[in-house]
Automatic annotation (TrEMBL), chain A:
All copies of domain RRP4 S1, residue ranges: 78-150
Quaternary structure note: Component of the RNA exosome core complex (Exo-9), composed of EXOSC1, EXOSC2, EXOSC3, EXOSC4, EXOSC5, EXOSC6, EXOSC7, EXOSC8 and EXOSC9; within the complex interacts with EXOSC4 and EXOSC7. The catalytically inactive RNA exosome core complex (Exo-9) associates with the catalytic subunit EXOSC10/RRP6. Exo-9 may associate with DIS3 to form the nucleolar exosome complex, or DIS3L to form the cytoplasmic exosome complex. Exo-9 is formed by a hexameric base ring consisting of the heterodimers EXOSC4-EXOSC9, EXOSC5-EXOSC8 and EXOSC6-EXOSC7, and a cap ring consisting of EXOSC1, EXOSC2 and EXOSC3.
Leader sequence segment: none
Gene behind the chain: exosc2
Organism: Carassius auratus
Protein name: Exosome complex component RRP4
UniProt record similarity statement: Belongs to the RRP4 family.
Positions of the Exosome complex component N-terminal domain: 29-66
Pfam families: ECR1_N (PF14382), KH_6 (PF15985), S1_RRP4 (PF21266)
Automatic annotation (TrEMBL), chain B:
Organism: Carassius auratus
Keyword Nucleus recorded: yes
Top-rank taxon: Eukaryota
Name of this protein: Exosome complex component RRP45
SUPFAM superfamilies the UniProt entry points to: Ribonuclease PH domain 2-like, Ribosomal protein S5 domain 2-like
Biological-process GO terms, alphabetical: exonucleolytic trimming to generate mature 3'-end of 5.8S rRNA from tricistronic rRNA transcript (SSU-rRNA, 5.8S rRNA, LSU-rRNA); nuclear mRNA surveillance; nuclear polyadenylation-dependent rRNA catabolic process; rRNA catabolic process; TRAMP-dependent tRNA surveillance pathway; U1 snRNA 3'-end processing; U4 snRNA 3'-end processing; U5 snRNA 3'-end processing
Location of this chain's protein in the cell: Cytoplasm; Nucleus, Nucleolus
Signal sequence interval, chain numbering: none
Length: 296, 395
């Protein structure tokens, strides 16, 4: 039951400059306390403060300059929502006519009753009965995928699931990563050729699930299939989950291509070995090389 | 900021594991996590680590006029603060239920139990008495703040020294530590809180719950006791029904735990006193081990070596015998420990078995000799490599 595993540390292979990201030089990275500029002609934005006429950074991140405005975008931060982002969240409260959803942001997001699809896909005004039956649709602890509809003045996000691809999530694996490593793309729902599907939420929540067999049109996103998932699917999803953790540990941008390359690079190792530090480095190196070739 | 809610499957997993008498970190039902007590350079400063929960306590004193109702007694003031450093759920200047509960329990445990002799804190009756102020700050919240806070508070109070005073008529002279040695407080007994968490409507209990176990608990029972088996306070929260024999059983467990913890505190105090007397270096900086930053850093974990030999032998018996007989190039130097001495090298079992030179285990458990053969790869495991071998426990 309890096994002892031993490994000797190997000599670190020097990383070739081609494999390392070449655009690292033109990024202006700062840590809290670094002076960005002593020029007083700039306006200070988020993540900066004035320290005796010098603009200093207050967070660790990249400096962004838009004309006269300088701000620092932090590398590790809570999710800051933008309209149109796909997010995955967990219901924390059921209130009158709305649900509170936790999305890794500073405030809980809001999912209004009027922003969800009623089962059956009908379009009608929400009645009092609908309000009382809210708990039958979504309870505390349920996971949903949704899109950001708008942002309230205090920064809380208003979500909607008014499309058949959004809704309650069924069986799968949730992986939590930092929101800043999820790449912004046209679509965040991918059916990976390795045999699983992935939803890359912009808020850092990534959902892995077995590819559904056939689309159930009238489900409207609230029917969750409780059929047992086959072992092969489970292995694929476990491997993907470990690959995601490896990518997140090495700060590689997550998008469908990078996840796929990492999956393919990891096939030579056992699933549980992927999380070992040396093997993680090996896999990520190969992934990075393939990504550089792919772009170049 | 709101704490990340626990997912449904985590909740179910924890409850199911508790039903099967298993805990997340492998402890038994009545086991405490590792307690570490360190003292700072000032008298009265103490950090207690209960697993990953860290609590800092600082005791200070001041001369103040006494309360009108008790002119001959000193004043004890307790304050517990939850800083946002401890957990993202704690907000500064926010009076939460947990904070009130912890403060009240700390006061009840230390003030109402009369563990400190307040009469000895009186300097001039009716005019000047010592006010002892105990500040507890929570540095990291990983469950069971109450126990850690009470251990920290009583350790700090036992460690604290107040300045010496001399009274001449109506004049009070307070001596600085350089002029006259400061005097310790007179402590009658050490009350320590022991927390019991109840699950599934009181059918299962756990001692020293960690943070995730606390989130799924139904109720909490805190018993403050000293090593003389005197109960100083009992508090039950969560509204669960407890049976009489359950409470009695908990008090018995608490007495065992309290005597262990009191011994630990006394040992820590003794160590600190000894180091200070010998003139050695003391304080927080010295008590932290020199940590080197390596790429593969893991926490120290005790490894069960009981059945390693059997499992290793099993692996040996399962593998087929290698074709060539090669004497092991392993050199056992003085003072090194080696697990699985004289056993076949099973590192390469999962990968290419044919390529790596296999070592053959001899019939006797003699020390192996480095072979002089030039053909094979000689791998010498010397002391350096032994030290850098990492052991990880897998379950």
């Amino acid at each position: 039951m309890a096994s002892v595993e031993m490994r000797l540390p190997a000599v670190h292979k020097p990383v070739s400059p081609a494999a390392s990201q070449s655009n690292r030089d033109d990024k202006h990275l700062v840590v809290p306390g670094d002076v960005i500029t002593s020029d007083t002609g700039f306006m200070r934005g988020h993540g900066t403060y004035m320290d005796e006429d010098r603009l200093t950074a207050s967070v660790a991140g990249e400096v962004e300059r838009v004309n006269k405005l300088i701000c620092v975008r932090p590398l590790k931060t809570r999710y800051n929502g933008e309209v149109g982002d796909v997010v995955i969240g967990r219901i924390t409260e059921v209130q009158q006519k709305r649900w509170k959803v936790e999305t890794n942001s500073r405030l809980d997001s809001v999912l209004l009753l009027s922003s969800v699809n009623l089962p059956g896909g009908e379009l009608r005004r929400r009645s009092a009965q609908d309000e009382l039956a809210m708990r039958d649709y979504l309870q505390e602890g349920d996971l949903i995928s949704a899109e950001v509809q708008s942002i309230f003045s205090d920064g809380a996000l208003s979500l909607h699931t008014r499309s058949l691809k959004y809704g309650k999530l069924g069986q799968g694996v949730l992986v939590l990563v930092s929101p800043s490593i999820v790449k912004r793309q046209k679509t965040h729902f991918h059916n990976l050729p390795c045999g699983a599907s992935i939803i890359l939420g912009n808020n850092g929540y990534v959902w892995l699930y077995p590819t559904p067999g056939h689309q159930d049109e009238e489900a409207g996103g609230y029917y969750t299939s409780m059929e047992p998932v086959s072992l092969a699917d489970r292995e694929v999803i476990s491997r993907l989950r470990n690959c995601l953790l490896a990518l997140a540990a090495h700060k590689v941008l997550l998008y469908d291509t990078s996840v796929l390359y990492c999956y393919e690079a990891s096939l030579t190792h056992q699933i549980k070995d992927i999380l070992k530090p040396e093997i993680m480095e090996e896999i990520i190196l190969e992934t990075r090389q393939r990504l550089v070739e792919h772009e170049g | 900021m709101r704490d990340t809610p626990l997912s449904n499957c985590e909740r179910r997993f924890l409850l199911k594991a508790i039903e099967e008498k298993k805990r997340l970190d492998g402890r038994q039902t009545y086991d405490y996590r590792n307690i570490k007590i360190t003292f700072g350079t000032d008298y009265g400063c103490c950090i207690v680590e209960l697993g990953r929960t860290r609590v800092l306590c600082q005791v200070s004193c001041e001369l103040v006029p006494p309360k009108d109702s008790r002119p001959t007694e000193g004043i004890m003031f307790f304050n517990l603060e939850l800083s946002p450093m401890a957990s993202p759920a704690f907000e500064p200047n926010r009076q939460s239920e947990l904070l009130v509960m912890l403060n009240r329990q700390l006061e009840r445990c230390l003030r109402n139990s009369k563990c400190i002799d307040t009469e000895s804190l009186c300097v001039v009756s009716g005019e000047k008495v010592w006010q002892i102020r105990v500040d507890v700050h929570v540095l990291n919240h990983d469950g069971n703040l109450m126990d850690a806070a009470s251990i920290a508070a009583i350790s700090a109070l036992s460690h604290f020294r107040r300045p010496d005073v001399a009274i001449q008529g109506r004049d009070i002279t307070v001596f600085s530590p350089e002029e006259r040695d400061p005097i310790p407080l007179s402590i009658y007994h050490m009350p320590i809180c022991v927390s019991f968490a109840f699950f599934l409507q009181g059918s299962y209990l756990l001692v020293d719950p960690c943070e995730q176990e606390e989130r799924v608990k139904d109720g909490l029972l805190v018993i403050a006791m000293n090593k003389h088996r005197e109960i100083c306070s009992i508090q039950s929260s969560g509204g669960i029904m407890l049976l009489k024999d359950q409470v009695l059983r908990c008090s018995k467990i608490a007495s065992v735990k309290v005597s262990e913890i009191t011994e630990l505190i006394n040992k820590a105090l003794e160590n600190d006193k000894k180091i200070r007397k010998e003139g050695g270096k003391f304080g927080f900086a010295e008590s932290m081990p020199k940590e080197r930053i390596t790429t593969l850093k893991r926490e120290e974990a005790p490894v069960e070596m009981a059945d390693v030999k059997e499992t290793a032998n099993e692996i040996v018996n399962r593998t087929e015998t290698p074709t060539e007989v090669v004497s092991s190039p392993v050199l056992v130097a003085m003072g090194t420990a080696q697990v699985g001495e004289g056993i076949v090298n099973s590192w390469g079992l999962d990968e290419d078995e044919e390529d790596e030179p296999q070592t053959e285990d001899t019939k006797t458990d003699d020390v192996m000799v480095i072979s002089d053969s030039e053909e094979e790869e000689v791998v010498i495991l010397n002391e350096e490599a032994q030290k850098s071998t990492k052991l990880s426990k897998r379950k």
